[in-house]
Amino acid sequence: MLRNDKISQTHDYLAPLTRDSRHPVVDWRAIMTDAEQTLFGVLDKELDKRGYKPRDVKVKPISSGGANYTSKLFLVDVTTPKENLKLFAKVAIIAGQLRQTMSADWLFATERLTYTKIAKFYEDLQEKYNLSGEVKLKFPKFYGCNDEYGKETVIMENLVASGYKPFNRLKSIDWQHASAAVEYLAKFHALSFALARDIPEEFKELSDLKYEIGSQQSDDEITKSVWEKIIKGAIAVVKEEHKSRVISYFQNMPKFNTYNKPIGKPVLSHGDFRVSNLLFKAEVSGISFYVT
Q1: Residue 31, pLDDT score
Q2: What is the pLDDT of residue 103?
Q3: How far apart are the first and last CA of the chain?
Q4: Are the beta carbons of 194 and 186 closer than 8 angstroms?
Q5: Are the beta carbons of 282 and 121 closer than 8 angstroms?
Q6: How far is 15 from 101, CA to CA, in rounded Å?
Q7: pTM of the model
Q8: Residues whose CB is less than 8 angstroms from the CB of residue 42 and which lie 6 or more positions away in sequence, other chains included
Q9: pLDDT for the residue 223
Q10: Phi and psi at residue 23, to the nearest 5°
């Protein structure tokens, strides 16, 4: 697996670059990684669009500790006369055969679709029905994206700067956090029902994506190799008397999309609703929650 290396330094970047006779000109792009150059390009476009000029932009690469291996992660601080922003950014780094095996094109496209379209639909529906702030489904504020192949980028608010933090993915989740997560998921599905009722043509277009990953054509040899590794790992840790049952299950298990098909009315589902993608914050009223 590709993993994000933890880098401690912060790059300070002023755009556009200016010449000062007292100091030599430093082209920061010359010492940036490809992911950083991509990020600054998207930041320039999106911050210009919102009128954040003049500005000082500081970017710090961070590590997820192995929880993320498709993208390079960054914290971004933007200082302007208008306001100061605390942002979080992801820039794609997955490439080659692994990108194909993980259906990364689909994953990045779905992420963009969620923040540029679905979140807007859901926010409009909640406003339409006058839902109060404490019961609304919350989305991180979205600042922009890039859909260029191999440089896919998403920029949103930095929730950690507001006190949110992930649950330890290596520990079993407790009831307080699990119940908050299920409540959030229930709201997500409820809004899907509302979208299907109020804007059926849009729901139809979105729901046509529901089996895309499970129906994609895959390289049989690559798929076989991946599954052989997964199966060997599973068999290695089970008791001897259970090994034959585990092997039998893997030999006869249904295709992935069998588990994605709705029993009744379909909903737009998250698709990767696991602890690594959940952020929590303890408040007086209980646990506040975000999904990324």
Answers
A1: 53
A2: 81
A3: 21
A4: no
A5: no
A6: 38
A7: 0.75
A8: 89, 144, 145, 146, 153, 155
A9: 67
A10: -135, 150
Report the 10 Å Cβ neighbour count for 52. 19
Query: Is the distance from CB of 42 to CB of 145 less than 8 angstroms?
Result: yes
Residue appearing with tokens 């609304």: 136
Q: What is the pLDDT of residues 133-175, one digit of tens each?
A: 889 998 999 999 999 999 999 999 999 999 998 888 888 889 9
Give the tokens for residue 19: 């010449």
DSSP codes, 205-245: HHHTTTTHHHHS---HHHHHHHHHHHHHHHHHHS-GGGHHH
Q: Are 211 and 257 in contact (CB under 8 A)?
A: yes
Rounded to the nearest 5 percent, the helix, strand and coil shares of the chain are: 45, 20, 40
* pLDDT on residue 89: 97
For the packed helices 243-252 and 220-237, what is the interaxial angle rounded to 10 degrees? 160
Whose tokens are 């379209």? That residue is 117
Q: Residue 146: CB partners within 8 Å, gap ≥ 6?
A: 38, 41, 42, 152, 153
Residue 229 burial class via C-beta count within 10 angstroms: exposed 0-12, middle 13-18, buried 19 and up: exposed
Q: Is residue 137 a contact partner of residue 191, using CB atoms and an 8 Å limit?
A: yes
Tell me which residues of the chain have a pLDDT lower than 50: 1-28, 214
Tens of pLDDT, residue by residue over 274-288, are 888 888 888 766 667
Residue the block writes with tokens 């192995």: 66
